Amino acid sequence: MEDRIASLQTVAVAAIVAVAARKELDAARVAYLGKSGEITRLSEAMREVAKEDRPRIGKLLNELRQAVNAALEAKEQTLAAAADSAALATLDITLPGTPRETGSIHPLTRLLDQTVRIFRRMGFVLADGPDIETEWHCFDALNTPADHPARNEQDTFYLPDGRLLRTHTSTVQVRTMESQIPPVRIIAPGAAYRRDEVDATHLAQFNQMEGLYVDREVSVADLKGTLEFFFRELFGPETQMRFRPHFFPFTEPSYEIDIRARALGGKWMELAGCGMVDPAVFEQICQKRGDRVYDPDQVTGFAFGFGLDRLAMNLTHISDIRMLVENDLRFLQQFPA
Ligand code: PHE
Predict the structure, then answer these.
(1) What spacing in Å lies between the alpha carbon of 189 and ligand 1's midpoint?
(2) How many angstroms separate the CA atoms of 23 and 38, rounded?
(3) pTM greater than 0.70
(4) Where does ligand 1 bind, in terms of residues with CB under 6 Å?
(5) Quick one: CA dihedral 110, 234, 168, 281, positive or negative?
(6) 66-112, pLDDT tens digit by residue?
(7) In angstroms, rounded to a whole number, what is the distance separating the alpha carbons of residues 101 and 18?
(8) What is the largest CA-CA distance in the chain?
(9) What atom in ligand 1 is closest to the CA of residue 167?
């Protein structure tokens, strides 16, 4: 018995060391340790061993099992390591890797975020309205009569049912006053549409930022102070501003705002329209609401609006506004996060 154990140990360990493939290793495990494997059979032969010899033989058998298991384990690791380096041999680790593409914030989104952040600090909250509007919200409520040139079919896109794609975000002024009581202090960024020929400085769909503040005793000084603060925060403290008299049907008085800032190339630029909400607009709202909370004898307000695309275009020094919407990565990658 002792001899059989000793010679099996020598043969088994040598055989396992000689194994060259996974399959052979599995076969060896079965051949020695399987249900009818050689070591299993030897264990069964223990029955014939004399009682006084059993502890000694049993110990030898255990050592045999451990030796075979250790050899199997060692071989297993050698084979796995060999498989790994075989896989690596076909891989040239000196080749440059594939860099992971990371996105960045679109210049328009960045400008929008900055704008919203500044107005939030002054207590403005975001408001919203639909892109598809009624003529009443887009024009009538804003004191723009049916014969006004802005209502010419050439100027916007009409749906067969008479609704239209809003030509400005001033519609959100109307929607806000319809549904909320004063004081209101909102900004409303969003798309506006005009039937403009698309070229380097025009898009048929563009983005505006609307603002409205209605309360008791809101004045032109509040309007100027609010917008001055905004533009100085956005473009820097040395920013200069010019309020030029202008006309909008829904504000009186009305102004256009010109800005001169280093960030915008140091030249005067017409950037925004604004004014004090026309009493005729408040009257329209009162009629629609059926109450007098926007009675023009009780409340006043200012409104402003400006185009975000044109501004983003000047801030990023691009010469063609269409670059903002073409999604060309060669353009967008120039504005890393
Ligand atoms: N809605 C005007 C436009 O699109 C801008 C504006 C907004 C003017 C609010 C005055 C007040 O040109």
Answers:
(1) 12
(2) 19
(3) yes
(4) 168, 170, 248, 251, 273-275, 303-305
(5) positive
(6) 988 998 999 999 999 988 888 888 888 888 988 888 888 999 999 99
(7) 49
(8) 122
(9) 4
